[in-house]
Amino acid sequence: MRIITNGNIAITTYMKCASSNLQKFFTPTKDQWKEHRNVYANPNTSRKFKDIKYSDKKGGLDIKRSCTLIVVTRNEFDRWCSGVVQDIVETFSEEKVDYGDLTMDAIANTVKHALIDTTQYINLFMGGKYGHSHVGQDSWIKNITSIGHRPNTHFIDISSLSDRSFWERVCELDNTWPPVDHWWSLWEKECGPNDFLHPKKMVTEWIMDVLHKHENLKQIKKILESNQEIIENIKKEMSWWSIQDDEKFLNERNLI
Question: What is the pTM of this model?
Answer without folding.
Answer: 0.88
